[in-house]
Target: S-protein homolog
Amino acid sequence: MKNLFIFVFVFLGLNVVNPCNGCPIILRGYVVHIKSDIPNDNVTVHCQSKDDDVGYHVLHSPNLEFQWKFCETITGSTLFFCHFWWQNKEQIFDVFNISMAQWCFVDHLEGNTCHWEIKDDGFYFYEPHNYVWLKQYSWKQIPEGKLIF
Ligand SMILES: *[C@@H]1O[C@H](CO)[C@@H](O)[C@H](O)[C@H]1NC(C)=O
Ligand SMILES: *[C@@H]1O[C@H](CO)[C@@H](O)[C@H](O)[C@H]1NC(C)=O
Model:
């Protein structure tokens, strides 16, 4: 009997949608927001997960930011990584994974936002619990002769 209740609860939870974020009510909604602080130069960004390609974005003033929304999977295994290029530099890292899900979670109905900012010295993550930008990665030089995209 107890198992039946759990089954019904999960079944309803997966089928009833939270109107604020479009996610089933038992799953958390997230937003990844990426912004360039290098307004006068092109920064190219390609973000994807195993199943989803967010596409290529060329960030240049006045189009310096973009974001996308998604619902966490029931196992919490959602992972998005991005590849960034700027001049002869690049970097690649997870912008969202199981640990970022905890960092970005602030119990916001419309979605918990992971903010990343691209600067000339590297990549910063906004830590919403302490209201601070934390540098996570630096740019890496692309080895001479390596194809860019
Ligand atoms: C920046 O990107 C735009 C759009 O893709 C392109 O037209 C332009 O030539 C690029 N500028 C530089 C300096 O690469
Ligand atoms: C998740 O992503 C963050 C930020 O890129 C990284 O520091 C961390 O090591 C990653 N965690 C896991 C479990 O891969």
